[in-house]
Amino acid sequence: MAGIFGRMRHKLSKTGKKIEKYQEAITFAEAGESEYAMEAMVEQTEEQQTMQLLVVGRESAFSKEIIDYALDMAQRMSYEILALNTAPLSCDTFKLFSSSRNQICDEFKSLSEKNAATFQQAAAAKGIAFDHIVMFSEADDALQEVTRNNKNIAFVVSESIEDRAESRIEEGERLRKHLYVYSIV
Asked: Which CATH class name applies to 52-183?
C-alpha cells in the first residue's frame, strides 16, 4: 500500500513543480520579459518527455499475449513502447570462430527485427510510438542497462521463464504463460 501512496505523492510533487513553472512563465510574461517566459516554457516542455513501456521478448520473439497486453497498456497510459530482444550470449563468445560470430549475431538481429515488425505494425495501427532494440547479453543484464540509460521507462512487461513442463504436468497443472509487469521507480 505504501508503494501506491509513494507514487501518488511523487506524481503530485511533479504536478506542483509544473504549476510553479507555468506561474513563473506567466509572471515573466506579465512583466514584459517574454524572453524569460519562453525559456521557462521551453524548460517545461523538455521535462515533459513521454514515458515508455519496456517490453522484453523471449529471445528473438514476442508472444501474442505480451503484444496484446503491451498495446492495451500503452494505449491506456499514453506510453510509447520500447521492445527489447536479448540473446543470452555475447558475440565475443564466438571469437575463436570469427567467421561464424558475425553470421550468428546478424541472423539473430534480423530474426528479432522480423518478429518485431508484427508488433510494430500493431502499434502503428493504434497510433503508439514504437522503438526496438536488440542486445547480446542475459535478459537481466540487458534490462538493467536499458533502464539505467533510459529514465523515461515507467513499466517493464516480460514473460515468465517457463517452468519445466514435466514437473508442472506431474503436479496436475496445465501449461500456460504468465506475464509480469514491473514499475520502475
From this structure: alpha beta
* Degrees, nearest 5: CA angle 117-118-121: 85
pLDDT digit string (tens) for 88-104? 766 555 555 566 667 77
Cβ atoms of 55 and 83 closer than 8 Å = yes
Residue among 162, 142, 165, 159 nearest 67 (CA): 159
**What whole-number distance in Å separates Cα of residue 54 and Cα of residue 72?**
13
For residue 155, what are the contacts with CB-CB under 8 A and spacing of at least 6? 53, 54, 73, 77, 79, 181, 182, 183, 184
Query: In terms of pTM, does the model score above 0.90?
Result: no
Grid cell 564466438 — which residue? 94
- In the chain, % helix, strand, coil (3-state, to 5) comes to 60, 15, 25
Query: Where do the structural domains in the chain lie, given as residue ranges?
Result: 2-47, 52-183
Q: Cell numbers at residue 25, please?
A: 512563465
- H-run or E-run covering 19: helix 2-30
6-53 residue pLDDT tens = 556 656 666 677 777 777 778 877 777 777 767 766 665 555 568 899
